[in-house]
Amino acid sequence: MRIGITCYPTYGGSGVVATELGIELAALGHEMHFISYSQPFRLTGRESGIFYHEVPVSNYPLFEFPPYDLALASRMAEVAEYYHLDLLHVHYAIPHSVSALLARQMLAQRGKHLPFVTTLHGTDITLVGMDRSYLPITRYAIEQSDGVTSISQYLKDVTVNNFGITRHIEVVHNFVNCDVYKPFADEEARAQARARFAAPDEFLFMHLSNFRPVKRIADVVQIFARVAKQLPARLALIGDGPDRSTAEWLANSLGIHDRVQFLGKQDRVSELLPLADLMLMPSEMESFGLAALEAMACQTPAIATRVGGVPELIDDGVNGLLFPVGDVDAMAAASIALLRDPERHQTLRKAARKTAQDRFCSTRVLPRYVEFYESLLSNAGTQAKGELSS
Description:
- The chain is of the alpha/beta class.
- It folds into two domains: 2-175 and 362-389, 3-Layer(aba) Sandwich (Rossmann fold), CATH 3.40.50.2000; 187-360, 3-Layer(aba) Sandwich (Rossmann fold).
- Helix content is 43%, strand content 16%.
- It is built from 13 helices and 13 strands.
- The protein has helices at residues 13-27, 68-82, 93-108, 123-126, 135-144, 153-163, 187-194, 217-228, 244-253, 290-297, 328-339, 342-360, 362-389; strands spanning 2-6, 31-36, 50-54, 87-91, 116-120, 147-150, 170-171, 203-209, 233-239, 260-264, 278-281, 302-305, 320-323.
- The chain has a seven-stranded parallel sheet with strand order 3-2-1-4-5-6-7, with helices on both faces.
- Helix 1 links the parallel strand 1 and strand 2 (31-36).
- The protein is globular, with a radius of gyration of 22 Å.
């Protein structure tokens, strides 16, 4: 198949999932075309079967806000026509599904049918989409999509209840390549790589996010500060965003800045996550928790919050630990108790990896996307034949 993918190319869950999906599908022999204002950060530009098409946006002085959604729709239609795309798959409803709808209508005028799939990721529904300014158009775009998927049952339920959607929404969980995200096979190699971040007698905590308020970065620092009072430990923070300066200030104020490393945005997080003993994910909301899944695949269990779709990934006390939002004392105490119990820690580590392998590996999830595409294209072909015969 020839598939167009549109996503936000920045450091966030929806962009990561979309990019990894394109990479995995290209590895299966499909031709993938990314259409966005910038190349997704996890693409190197050297992947076989993957092509990138930039969306130029006018800076004409008349426009206070450049009309990216219109430019995107035009570029989608162009790429679909020039490269004979079979379908578009847009990630994050706003504005991508609206742009895909416009592209489909533009091509229909020329007798070409371009079906599109919308994948709902989280804040496009729970935050931005619920804004009264966007709710009607978000609902309309979802209803007009040829196919809709959601990354968790939680997000599907929220979409149905809050938007009054009656159409079918397929739940396809996020995934991870378990051959890339995996623990070190050689413990000596792990120790050498880990030495960059922590001494052999120190525990290593990690956090991975876009540092937005919903991720509660201050809680990450507060949890670690409590742990650091009782255990020799270090914290590595991967990513960047608006709350980074707050976290840096807090680490300095609490006197732990010398134990905290801000690593910024990293392309190869699969090489960092296996070095950690625990992942901290105390988010206000997560529609799934991709960062936790990537850590779990690397045999690093997560200390997380019981919100959104996280319980669909983390079974409390089995492959990780869940807590109420903001309960930094409980999260710190549980981290300390777990690290002081090597046998239990090892049990959780193995269970975390097994969960990723059994339920969320790309080899298990990718076939569901392929089947979904094929079903959609089959239905589109049947519909087109019916229209011709009538």
